[in-house]
Amino acid sequence: xxxxxxxxxxxxxxxxxxxxxxxxxxxxxxxxxxxxxxxxxxxxxxxxxxxxxxxxxxxxxxxxxxxxxxxxxxxxxxxxxxxxxxxxxx
Length: 90
Hints:
Oligomer: single chain
CATH class: Alpha Beta
Helix content: 25-40%
Number of helices: 2
CATH topology: Nuclear Transport Factor 2, Chain: A
Mean pLDDT: 81
Distance between the termini: 46 Å
Number of domains: 1
Low-confidence stretches: none
Structural class: alpha+beta
Largest sheet: 4 strands, antiparallel
């Protein structure tokens, strides 16, 4: 029973986030077009009580996470993840 209530609360939070005044997903995608690459995952998240679009891209063999402010459409942060082909530092 606890699990059902947990999923219900998470669904309620997600619904409230989606119903807030956020930019559409296509505007978030357009914001990261200058970075280039292929988008393979997009998720609307709440980060420090702010709504953000998190987009994951593949670019030149690298995985890049880009965070876009869901209210303004501005890129907040872009960071490259370690790829499997790179040696792991000792």
